[in-house]
Amino acid sequence: MSYLYAAYISTWVIHITYLGYLLRRYSSLRKEIEELKRRH
Amino acid sequence: MKRLFPILSIVTAALLSWGLYGALVTAPTEKTMGEVQRIFYYHVPSAWIAFCLFFVNLAASIVYLVRRSLKADALAVASAEVGVVFCTIVLVTGPIWARPVWGIWWTWDLRLTLTLVLWLIYVSYLILRRFSSSGQTPKIAAVLAVLGALDVPLVYFSIWFFRTQHPQPVMGGGGSIDPRMLHVFFVNLAAFSCFGALVCWSRYRLEVVRREVEETQALESLLEPGSVR
Q1: What is the ipTM of this complex?
Q2: Which of A33, A34, B5, B63 maximizes the CB count within 10 A of its CB?
Q3: Nearest-CB residue to A4 (from B36, B88, B216)
């Protein structure tokens, strides 16, 4: 049973880590866009 | 797509919850492997979605090579990255399943080795995209993607044509599966397909916007006083 939970938990850890990485990139991109808008 | 995104997200969350409940509760326990066989409901859909995303990467790379479409290039990057995420899940859940069933975490079996090679090819593709600043990078990456995609059918058909440690296919390969298991499998396949499509779309939008920002910044630095001499 522990192997089963290990597999399911690792699947979601990988997905959530990747989603977190995408969110970080989105927020830094948003900051760059706002910076560009402020300059114009 | 922007309007559909929240609806698709809710549908995906519902499907994922239903799939998880099915995999852990409603699907019958397999006789020989026991509870650990339930890894199948995450491992196999992840592999199929990784293959689909690598196919999207191949198609987008061909379109880029033929038409030099920047949108196709952005889609190629997005699909490769999300494909690598799903392929990583296959490579992580596979050994966790193998340990209690085979008694080993890993063996240099044809399918396992080819899957690892596939993962390495697309990781190389992403490293090339990330760290090479040459103008030729998209073209070189597209060629690498076309060659790398040749490994996908090799991985898929390796268990059909060779005797390997990996089990033979239960669907379409002469094996049989309980209809309740098949039902849970298809729910999880649909759930992870929707999830993969949403994540790939988000990554594609991110790539498009990132390129637009980079272009604007490059133009701005050119137009800055003192930059043109």
Answers
A1: 0.93
A2: B63
A3: B36
Structure token pair of residue B106: 């890993």
CB-CB neighbors (< 8 A) of B92 in chain A: 7, 10-11, 14
Partner-chain contact B35 A4, CB within 8 Å: yes
Instruction: Identify whether the C-beta of residue B192 lies closer than 8 Å to the C-beta of residue B186.
Output: no
Q: What is the pLDDT of residue B226?
A: 66
B137: number of Cβ within 10 Å: 15
Angstrom distance (rounded) from CA B25 to CA B221: 59
Give the residue ranges of DSSP H helices in B1-69: 4-21, 40-67
CB B77 within 8 A of CB B127: no
Secondary element (H or E) of residue B119: helix B110-131
Minimal Cα distance from B46: which residue of A?
A11
CB-CB under 8 Å, A15 with B85 = yes
